[in-house]
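Lesson 9: reading folded outputs for more than one chain in a single document. The general rule is that every protein is listed as its sequence immediately followed by its structure tokens, and records are never interleaved. Here is the first one.
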Amino acid sequence: MMNPGIADTCKREARTLKAVDLVCRTPGDARKRRGWWGICEPPAGMRGPAGYPQGTRLAFGAWMWVFILFVNAWVFLLPQVAAALPIVTVSLVPEKERLVVAYRFSTPVTRLALRPQNSEERLNHWEVIPPVLLEGNSIRRHDGKAFDRLVVTVQPDKYEFGGYPEFLHARSTWIINLAYLLPAKKSVSAIRLRLPDKIPVIIDGGCRNLHGIVPIDRIGHSHFLLMSKDKDVITGQGGTCAAFLGKRLEPFIRTILKDTSQFLDRLLYQRNSQFLVIVDERTSAAHFFQRGSVDAHETVLLQLYGQRWLRMSEAQIRRYLDPFLSHELAHVWEDGASISLTDSAHPWFWEGAAEFAALQYLEEKGRDDLALWQRHVTACRMVVGRRFSDSDFGRSRAEAYGCGTLFFLASDWLLRKRGAYPEGFFAFYRAMIASKTSGQTPTIHMLLDSLLGTDPIYRKLVRGEMEQNWNFFLSAFAAKGIAARETPMQDQALVTESWLAPMMRSLCTGPSGYWQDARWYVLDAPRSRCKLSGARRRIDSVNGVNFLRNPVPARQIVVRACRQERSILLSGPGKLPPLTVPCHFVVRPVPSDLQLFRQR
């Protein structure tokens, strides 16, 4: 006979097995009895400690294995997948007169895509080591093997400043544009850039910035975050802000920023002065860069040679920085006006107006703007007497600064004298801005028509084409009052006697006395062709130039050939040495009373 206790246990176990079978076979009941661990809840007899089912240990173990596999995949598998996007370290190493760009890849690659700045950039002109094939914008090895290092030699680059090409210290400063120097975005996952310490490098990666400054981020419209080479973070936020690599110029820069901004607000128009000024005390140059229509800010790069400031007094520093910075800030105000005259086809207007605004600022501060203008035009080696048109005038740097400034000086004098705009040219400029805001866009011909049409002399000179007025106006106002040859003699005399000659005479005999000691010579060339060249720089008379002013000392000038010119005007610093020329040239001094017009 079976023990009653054992019989009860067997019955209980049988009922338990039926219950388990029922739970597993009935989906509805299974869902009701399913716990948070995702398995069928076992009967009470199969529960483990603390009432949890014994199968819970298996569930936790499964989830733990899944987690371990996920971590392993993240740590070991993903880096292998990302190996196709290597990290590139770019090192710029100076080597004589060229810059070697060395690429090092974290993972060997078989093909590298470089992005040229524009369609004119051809990678074929780059010296690439090791030997590779250049296919459009991509590079691959000859043998098809992978390489982990690539060396590219880059020659000094040129950039467009103010609409005309300018070489920026071709042998000492390198302009590196990241757009075509670095690989394409899909080729790398990160870029590390190492700069050399021996030569200055300007990094251009979408916004232009100075040597030693790398843009980290730009937040909104008013916050700039820059990283200097010595890891000092420089920030500027809102209003007129400045970032400096040297602290000695900071009070002078901030004072000039405040004074010039207030002056330009009165002279041109009221502007919300928001721009960034970056100072680098390594070289002597200043450039205004437009950041684009997306950003409401402009950037003024003020590069100043650092050694000279240690020997200058405060008055000397202010005297040097006033015209330097006011010229660049005038560009900011001109750009804010968005006048169509300031496009790349007319750098004479762009630079001449900025220089003239700087002269007006110096005049308000009590400075001798006339002496500054004379020094500036002389330094630019301005060619005078040439027949200019609005399409080619001022394309070079010298003509843009020299002749452009002459144009605005003459325009201001003419507008004041004739009473059309008693306040001078910038009153006319404000009127043009007002006309633009009313829906009328100013053009170059509107400017010339408005300027020249206010003077009865120039109304008499109308030939049916505004360009002829323009040519005569610029040529007639050139230094020493030399008029264009194609102008009739009576018109030359009319212009000379009415306003040009007295004005030029005042320039030559003014308080500055800059030109009083200069000696001027006219070389009469009976031969049909004439050409001058200096020992250090080539000086040529081209495109109908009948007078040439040359600041190179006379002993460095030699006559090599001839051109279709009857005479050439030479100038130099005071106390010139005896001028030696071939026997077929006749040397005679220029009359001091500016009667050169009547000798033609």
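And here is the second record, again sequence then tokens.
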Amino acid sequence: MHRAGPSAGREAGSLTFQALTHTDSRFANNGNQFSGEPPDQALCVGNGFTFEMVNQVVTVYSGIGAQLVPEATINEFYGLAPNITRTDPPSFGPFVFDPVCRYDAQLQRWFVVNTALEQDPVTGEFTGVTRLYIAVSATSDPTGVFASYTINTTRGDATDRNCPCFDDFPHIGADANGFYITTNRFSLFGPNFNGAQIFAASKQRLAAAAAGNGRLPQVVSMNPGPSTGIRRSRFSRRPCRRVGNSSAVSTSCPRWTTTRSRKSKSPSGRWPTPLPSIQPTQASA
């Protein structure tokens, strides 16, 4: 697809170029896509690359805006069947959405997370099975191989009501030791909001496993509950993003913020038993 070249931005030292659009998302993979609104974007930059997802399409640019790989669907990125194959009759694969990404300068690796809802392959109706998909690059080059993994979020945990549930609006962060995902957990077929959810895993072991050097780390998950003095659960706790290379304790991220309050609060309670449900999927390129 034609791309306009980079141009000088309005501000000194800035750079602008046309990146992914709704057209790219809708017509990727021969048009076997849905029309997604609003245009959810994941954008991360590092090591001379710009990695972008918009709704259900992904590509990589150079630091000056040259497109380095053709657009691919997010389902292709994770090695999944298309979310819709427009044959007669149509068939359906997982509906993957809410992209978020991060370049980790300490490890020089790329991390990507999406929410996914399984669809009946014949009817397209949601089956009730839900997942988080996690992709980690094997090297510092995002045009190369990614290893991808899933966490099954269907049943939630003991604090959740009216599951099957799904983990919406993921955000990611990291410090010198850990990789963190926060989500908002909802009932898939009911009205319940079950609170924010926090996942944590060893960042080093995730990166090592993606490169084929070791086992996947254990992942722990918790519902931190409502903020102090607030009776209802809060939305969108966001993990901090440390960029330092030190492994000292002072570089950890002990505090969590909420988009509904100016205050911060450490997670309450204890981390529960590590989840057994992180599983490798097909490697993607």
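What the second record shows: The first strand starts at residue 7 and ends at 8.
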